[in-house]
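Study this pair:
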Amino acid sequence: MSLPLVNQIRFARSEFVRGLQGVSEEEGLRRFVPINSIGWMVGHMASHEQRFWLWRAQGIVLMPDIDEAVGYGKPASTPALGAMWDAWHAITAAVDPWLDSLTTDHLPSRLIVGGKEHDETIGSMLQRTMYHYWFHTGESQAVRQLLGHTGLPEYVGALGVEAPYESESSPR
């Protein structure tokens, strides 16, 4: 039984994935300056999840090179889409057990990183992750339009079925 915020992150992830179905490896490398490539976006979200939920929360660095390649504040790059999907799948799979362990009591808590309290609560970090996915979902759809793709998914998919509103006191 995951927390409602965790369920919303999973939904945001699934919409991110749904929005990128059919993008080729070649298209994943394409960059319309100043927008990053789709390969970068996928790797960047993997980096984000690793930084928040593996490294900051658990002291684990599963893929040490990903942050250097596509992390926050790093120079633009055009990494291979397939490699970034592999990283994203591995990292999110490693993150999920920790996310599933969260309770409502954890949400107002702050992680201790390098001996110092992180500046955001776990609940705010969960929200930041979800909103970050939505930002890059929209950005990726703009790139797909620039690539000439048509018939793109409509958002926000099956929210009422896959991720309906739930209170923190009644997680599924």
Summary: The chain has one domain: 4-162. The chain is about 55% helix and 5% strand.
